[in-house]
Write a structure and sequence with these properties.
heterodimer, A: 365 residues, alpha/beta, Rossmann fold, 2 domains, 7-stranded mixed sheet, 5-stranded mixed sheet, 15 strands, globular, B: 264 residues, 7 strands, 16% strand
């Protein structure tokens, strides 16, 4: 993926949610439609304060269902649009996301994940991994999913998200969490106006004499036609899987044990890597940045090198399934995590690694 | 009196030299309607698109089709169209109008779409005073899915999900959504019309004309309910269904203006 070449030089101390909102303004969004929900209402609030001073449109809708359908309409009309919500609200958007994916509309959705299931808690979680990458809505489709691990990435991935969404005519999602949304870190925002608009000749802007009428739909009632549309989508997803995988490797070169973690969990695991190495344990970390497309190949390669892998997540074990798929049984894949809005500590993760090592040593004796 | 033959209309060879006095407007495609004989949708589509053509706004009109019998409206209307999820047409129309405020945007929905699953979107779109035209086809039944009860189904009316007739103490009374919307300041023009005879069709055409003019003024939502018959859903012949509509639907849903802009 391209780097954001032009950045404003000054760093600002910002809350994750607000950095994300500011980046959206810098990305020249045409509209944001959203609904309040903790822990991400700051996104809507920031835009309601700032957009009138800058450019674009912000509208508080009556629900997340209305929001996602306004997104559909505006995206279908060729606009660059974004919405954000948190887990229960994202659940409400699933039908709309399936429609958007099927109609092949670009847009950016942000899920600031909170503990669940159900009404849950407002504390951070990674419990929506399955929902984000395995569907969520009905039918065969994918969202392009980016997982930031810092306030800087909260801002950067707005640009990356729109770039990918518009390149592939596909909805993109930033899958973050309540802690990243609320924490304050230094951020250098991308340059305002530097994300060029992409032509959308397919959009419903009004049928001029030089063309037929444009139709935005996900209805293909003849199964032969529906199958063709599905083939188109699958070919698109193959292209995305070939070209857009992104990950970060931390101390993997000589690693004997590999942690796999995204988002906030990866920040915790970075500390675990340091703590482990202080004790002479050669731990490395693979941080997927795109959760879809997932770095299966990279993990498979690393499986040739390490004794075991451990997926660390703030859920009951979701990404671990993809890690197991990736390694094709070459090495054991373990899991540790916390649920319900609790955050694992680096020491807890190290303790889990040491337990696995002890068990392995016992087996080997 | 002769009118121009539209480019999209095939002219039969033995008609050469004749005057064209009536034909399909440019704003309807050359796709045969699938609607049941006698259904109001056909006439409403025609009248709406005729007005779009006569006002010269084909290039600036964008419509939103619902889920229901008119789900394929986008095949029939020769303007840019979007197909919405069930109930969400007014939210979709809001999205379009907000990013393309100088276009003429309309949503087109049946009674399930607008007054059941879409009730929240309906109320809030009008409450915000979105500058769109909302077309509401009220035939008191869910036609496309085989004739189930709608929020607007009348007391005692037999449908596949009210086989003994609608009972108020079980499922409540028919919902008079247009009357509810009158309360909202964002509603600029609300009227209830029909298409069962030439006079009614003329009145509906005037309502559409006014609505597009009002949309240019940007003063709020125009809401046009069209009470329609549904011969298939009501299990009647087209002629019987019109009689039934005149005798039972019109008393429950009286025709006429419910809200008009105040004269300055």
């Amino acid at each position: 993926m391209e780097e954001n070449k032009n950045k404003k030089s000054e760093a600002r101390l910002m809350k994750g949610n607000e950095a994300l909102a500011e980046a959206a303004i810098c990305a020249d969004i045409d509209a944001y439609f959203g609904y309040p929900i903790t822990p991400q209402s700051e996104v809507l609030e920031y835009l309601e304060r700032e957009i009138p001073k800058r450019h674009g449109l912000v509208l508080q809708a009556e629900s997340e269902i209305a929001s996602i359908n306004m997104i559909y309409g505006a995206a279908g009309a060729g606009a660059r649009v974004m919405t954000s919500s948190s887990s229960p609200g994202i659940s409400l958007m699933q039908e709309g996301l399936s429609y958007i994916a099927s109609a092949q509309l670009p847009c950016l959705i942000v899920n600031v994940v909170r503990g669940g299931p159900g009404l849950g808690t407002i504390q951070p979680s990674q419990g929506d991994y399955f929902q984000a990458v395995k569907g969520g809505g009905h039918g065969d489709y994918h969202l392009i999913v980016l997982a930031p691990a810092s306030v800087q990435e909260m801002a950067d991935f707005v640009f990356d998200g729109f770039r990918l969404a518009e390149k592939y005519r596909n909805p993109a999602m930033i899958l973050t969490d309540g802690a990243l949304g609320q924490m304050m870190e230094k951020v250098i925002l991308p340059e305002e106006g530097s994300l060029k608009k992409v032509a959308a000749p397919w959009a419903t802007t009004g049928k001029t004499k030089d063309r037929d009428h444009n139709i935005i739909t996900s209805l293909f009632i003849k199964p032969e036609e529906m199958e063709q549309v599905n083939h188109q989508l699958q070919e698109k997803y193959k292209r995305i899987e070939n070209e857009e995988i992104r990950f970060e490797e931390i101390k993997t070169k000589d690693a004997e044990i590999l942690l796999v973690a995204f988002g906030l969990s990866s920040r915790i695991c970075q500390k675990t890597v340091d703590l482990g190495r202080e004790k002479g344990i050669k731990i490395g970390l693979l941080r997927p940045i795109t959760l879809y497309p997932f770095p299966y190949k990279k993990l498979n390669e690393l499986a040739d090198q390490v004794d075991f892998m451990m997926s660390v997540e703030m859920n009951a074990g979701q990404m671990v399934q993809d890690v197991k798929i990736a390694v094709e049984g070459k090495v054991p894949v373990h899991f540790t995590g916390r649920m319900g809005g609790m955050i694992p500590s680096p020491e807890d993760v190290l303790h889990e690694i040491e337990s696995v090592m002890d068990k392995q040593n016992v087996l080997q004796d | 009196m002769s009118i121009e033959r539209p480019s999209t209309l095939d002219f039969p060879p033995d008609a050469e030299g004749m005057d064209m006095v009536y034909c399909r407007p440019e704003t309807l495609t050359d796709v045969p309607f699938h609607y049941c004989p006698g259904c109001g949708h056909s006439v409403v589509h025609r009248v709406l698109m005729e007005v779009v053509e006569e006002l010269g706004i084909q290039e600036k009109t964008i419509g939103v089709a619902p889920v229901g019998c008119s789900v394929f409206a986008y095949h029939y209307m020769n303007v840019d169209m979007q197909e919405a999820a069930h109930g969400r047409a007014s939210a979709v129309a809001t999205g379009i109008k907000r990013v393309l405020p100088d276009r003429y945007v309309f949503s087109y929905q049946g009674d399930g779409d607008l007054a059941a699953i879409g009730t929240a979107e309906t109320i809030h779109t009008v409450n915000r005073g979105e500058n769109i035209l909302m077309v509401f086809i009220n035939n008191g039944i869910y036609g496309m899915t085989g004739g189930q009860m709608a929020p607007t189904t009348l007391i005692g009316q037999v449908t596949t999900t009210s086989p003994y007739g609608r009972e108020a103490n079980m499922v409540g009374h028919p919902l008079k959504i247009a009357d509810m919307l009158v309360q909202l300041p964002g509603a600029y023009y609300i009227t209830r019309q029909a298409v069962h005879n030439a006079n009614a069709v003329r009145k509906l055409k005037k309502a559409f004309q006014k609505s597009f003019e009002y949309q240019k003024e940007g003063k709020g939502t125009c809401f046009i309910e069209v009470v329609s018959n549904c011969p298939s859903g009501w299990k009647m012949t087209p002629v019987e269904s019109i009689k039934y509509m005149e005798e039972t639907m019109f008393p429950a849903y009286p025709l006429g203006d419910l809200k008009v802009p105040e004269k300055v």
